[in-house]
Amino acid sequence: MSQISPSGRVQPKIRKPKFPLEQIAKEKGFGKNIPFFTAFLSSLSVLFPEGERFFIRSVKFFQNQVPDETLRNEIKAFAGQEAVHGNVHDKMNERFVEIGLDFRSHEKMFCWLFFDILEKNILKLFPVWGRRLALSITAAAEHFTATLGRFLLSLPESRVAWIDPISWNVIEWHALEELEHKAVAYDVYQTSGGGYFTRILGMTIAVQLLGLLAIVGTIRALFYFGFPNPKQIVRDIRFFFGSPGFAWAVIFYILEYYIPGFHPNKQDDHALIEKFSKIVVYSA
What we know:
Number of strands: 2
Oligomer: single chain
């Protein structure tokens, strides 16, 4: 169970789940009743392993500049959680390849955009500022994944009944931990002296690149899962733009990030963290 301090901060907990990913079949995937969201989640899974490792590198580079012991402990837990996320999604992506959803070329494009261009070349040109920009992109991406996690964990059971139980268990676990460590990268960014301009630049870059990759990946996954029929399209639209709707949640919280004085912990997720830290199953 997650530890919540008297100040309201959450100490992330490193878990080592064992999911029967070998049981995921094409007919199940992330569920077929909402093909667009199924395709979207599948495309994100491909980006997670290398993305998580980028986040770890970005945050740990600044850990020696953090005087607060509580935050240093959170950095260690953050790195541990993200490392496990990467390993689990590596295995999930391997299963996708086995059942015919081969995203390896998509992963290469992601690595080229984020690492070859952003991480390597910008660091060569701006060694100091480049590190802070990488951290700001990490903080922005963590805000996005926390927003996605909050949306999914807040849905009533009837609205997630279409998801394969194994895949949903992975989603619950990952979403819970994203909420636990949602403020770590942001706090490290602020502690290291990061300012407003680089913070919003990081979000702008993250939105553009992740949006591009998500769109391309979703289209590719739709060819695998099958394009929806008119009835499914209506259901997709309701899921994305209904109430609660995924699109509104993402747009609102991304725009909120641009407000001066924003902080991830202003959104109270303690109830969700308490609930899912008790009910999520971590082993097969």
